[in-house]
Design brief:
Length: 427
Amino acid sequence: MKREQSPEETLARLGVRVLPPPPNGAHYGTAHPQPTTTFASPSKQPNVELVLAEAIEPTPIDWLWDGWLAKGKLQVLAGQPGTGKTTLAIALAAITSIGGVWPDGSQATAGNVVIWSGEDDPADTLVPRLIAAGADRSRIYFVKGVSEDGGKRSFDPAKDMGPLSQAMERIGDVKLVIIDPIAMVAVKDSHRNAETRRDLQPVADLCQATGAAGLGIHHLAKGTVGREPHERLIGSIAFAAVARVVMIATKTPPREGERNERRVLIRAKSNIGPDEGGYVYNLEQIELSEYSIFASRVLWGEAVDGTAREVLAEAESDGERSPREDAKGFLRSFLSEGPAAAKEVQAAARGEGISLRTLERAKAELRIRTFRVGFGKDSVFQWELSENNTIDRHAHHRSPLSGVAVYGDGGGQWSGEAGNSENREGG
């Protein structure tokens, strides 16, 4: 009678080697060995390792901002020109750097922030916005370049995620990493799903390896009205598929009693939490007197219910606008709180996909005034809305989020009930 083979003998005959669990119990995601099943193959072939489900310890999502920014995960923030996507990202960086208060009133855990921007200059745009937002600049790092083979070169987000991960590990305590724009990660055609997924994977791996919440800045495609919000990101659907949370920044028409468009940050997709709801916000221009420059910052408003599809439908009820109308809307919004340096306006418009030629035509149609501030080499040209396009700065404004501080001390709160925003002192 033929002896029945044991399971171990059967696996051995098939070329499968089962490793025993560690003596102190199974661990996943740690330095301890895991019980794995290795399929033997020729020496030149890679080995595939399988992990037993019972060896994986369930863990909850670790949120930097509950429901919005998950540690170790990639998120994407997208929007049309003029919505202030980069300024929103800077606001989130500022809150993280000081352990401030999120728009929902919850307390942030302070940590370091790493920012790579392929569009805006840190010196004349991003750092001024950080100062305006009340950030702790000793906790915020900009990716400057890469040292290689005895020389230096520009950082390439498509191939330098590994070295960036090592740099973040050396810094330690990095809670947030911002990639602006995330489309620069795509090496080839960003409209090809499979290729874009492969290109985005190193970014997702970076977040997982460092434990930082990743935030990629992206644009919405034109001609996509009526489609699912997360399908409207420019390029491949992979940008939305790889991201665990997709947020969309948009502008809705003024409501009764209001004189300006309302900006809304809304969740469009989430694999790990709620996928609707958001917050009203506004952009404010303030003067940094110490540096004689102007910078924009975010003022948060009330919570908004509903889905991204509903909010976008309201925003686009009159159909998509022409590029020049987009540029005019951008200028009205950007200059709504007062004059701004022409260089900063142009840089922000470029970041929103508005060409300089279109911007100049919109500027002429709005009769925006240009004037010089200062003398000699320190002088700065500024743009200002004409009287026909300004808002009533004497209207009463109040914040519906009483006691909620955006930048840690009760400042920077806004409500659009009676028109445009004003900064409110105190909590």
